[in-house]
């Protein structure tokens, strides 16, 4: 039987890194995971300082990920980390993830999963070969009412799905970013971000959410990407027409130059009998719209919600759950899955409800296909994997 908390190692996420702190808060929320070691920066001095500030044992503070993975693999099973969380720019995803899998460690990784589709496929194959788990932090799939929406679609509540509209506008890159803005700098650098900027950063979230809730897969696309701000090397805005594998149509808009917008992710899905609408800015509300009845408003924490929504809810109705709780649901389900496997048990469907390597492959395929479609004169571009 597994005893104690699931032990996490972290690569990246040191001082000044926004997303690393979010990962640590999310992992810690349910008391199932503890941060045991870290290679928290590519700068050795910052790595050591960051580790000390997080009260890591000095012998578990590493100055690079290769050192960490090698050293941890040599520790007794009762001491070594169980998984590594990779919270680095896109170009430092594949190698540490592959090395972790090769040394027997599960992996949590920020999206997009890798820098290229070929790398994503290789990572998926390695995970299958080793029997280890790869978890991808598509945060928005962790909200209780997103899971409620998915369950209602799956149950056929709205009939055959006909249309999916998703948009993710931000405004933080409406002007050229200051030179000292590290978050903007690496996202605009093809060597670190890959072949896409906005679509890789937030468009992949929108695409994943569309497929996650609808249960469908994008089959064809017609994309138009733009670099609105002069001098920017990668797209900061884009529009994509979608066709899904059941014949449904859709639209996807992602932008980081939508001045005045903060993080306005929203999705609408329509079937034969009705539809749904969810906004990330109001995550505890799900609108259900009917063809021949008044609109219904679902709220987080109520008894009428599905079992999967309740499994991912912590507080009673009227006590809002937000971004950190949604993020934590991914870590909680991942940790419960690892604990079940350690105990020789089969993880439940609720535990296994976290984005995985297959989602990562589809995310990288989305990026590469959208970029190719935007460059092509062809109206409809087959979604190739």
TrEMBL record:
Q: Where are the transmembrane segments?
A: none
Domain called GFO/IDH/MocA-like oxidoreductase: residue spans: 146-277
Q: Which residues form the Gfo/Idh/MocA-like oxidoreductase N-terminal domain?
A: 6-135
Superkingdom is Bacteria
The record's section on SUPFAM superfamilies has: Glyceraldehyde-3-phosphate dehydrogenase-like, C-terminal domain (SSF55347), NAD(P)-binding Rossmann-fold domains (SSF51735)
The GO molecular function terms of this record are:
nucleotide binding
PANTHER family assigned to the protein according to its UniProt record, in alphabetical order: CONSERVED EXPRESSED OXIDOREDUCTASE (EUROFUNG), OXIDOREDUCTASE
Quote the protein name from its UniProt record: Gfo/Idh/MocA family oxidoreductase
| Protein species of origin | Pedobacter planticolens
């Amino acid at each position: 039987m597994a005893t104690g908390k699931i032990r996490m190692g972290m690569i990246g996420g040191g001082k000044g890194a926004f997303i690393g702190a979010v990962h640590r808060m999310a992992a810690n929320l349910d008391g199932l995971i503890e941060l045991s070691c870290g290679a928290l920066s590519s700068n050795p001095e910052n790595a050591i300082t960051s580790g000390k500030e997080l009260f890591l044992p000095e012998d578990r503070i590493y100055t690079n990920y290769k050192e960490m993975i090698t050293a941890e693999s040599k520790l007794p099973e009762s001491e070594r980390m169980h998984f590594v969380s990779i919270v680095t720019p896109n170009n430092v995803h594949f190698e540490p993830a592959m090395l972790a899998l090769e040394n027997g460690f599960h992996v949590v990784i920020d999206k997009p999963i890798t820098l290229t589709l070929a790398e994503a496929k290789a990572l998926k194959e390695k995970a299958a070969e080793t029997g280890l788990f790869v978890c991808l932090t598509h945060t928005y799939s962790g909200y209780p009412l997103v899971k409620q929406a998915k369950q209602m679609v799956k149950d056929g509540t709205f009939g055959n799905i006909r249309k999916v509209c998703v948009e993710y506008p931000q405004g933080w890159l409406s002007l050229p970013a200051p030179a000292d803005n590290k978050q903007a700098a690496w996202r605009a650098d093809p060597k670190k971000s890959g072949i896409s900027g906005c679509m890789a950063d937030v468009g992949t979230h929108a695409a994943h959410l569309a497929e996650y809730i609808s249960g469908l897969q994008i089959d064809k696309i017609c994309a138009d990407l733009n670099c609105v701000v002069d001098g920017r090397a990668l797209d900061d805005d884009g529009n994509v027409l979608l066709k899904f594998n059941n014949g449904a149509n859709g639209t996807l808009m992602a932008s980081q130059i939508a001045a005045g917008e903060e993080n306005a992710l929203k999705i609408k899905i329509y079937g034969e009998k009705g539809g749904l609408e969810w906004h990330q800015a109001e995550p505890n509300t799900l609108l259900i719209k009917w063809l021949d009845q008044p609109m219904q408003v679902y709220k987080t924490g109520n008894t009428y919600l599905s079992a999967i929504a309740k499994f991912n809810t912590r507080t009673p109705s009227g006590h809002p759950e937000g971004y950190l709780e949604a993020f934590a649901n991914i870590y909680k389900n991942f940790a419960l899955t690892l604990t079940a496997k350690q105990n020789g048990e089969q993880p439940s469907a609720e535990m296994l409800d976290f984005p995985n390597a297959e989602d990562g492959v589809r995310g990288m395929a989305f990026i590469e296909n959208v970029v190719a479609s935007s460059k092509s004169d062809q109206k409809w571009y087959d979604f190739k994997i």
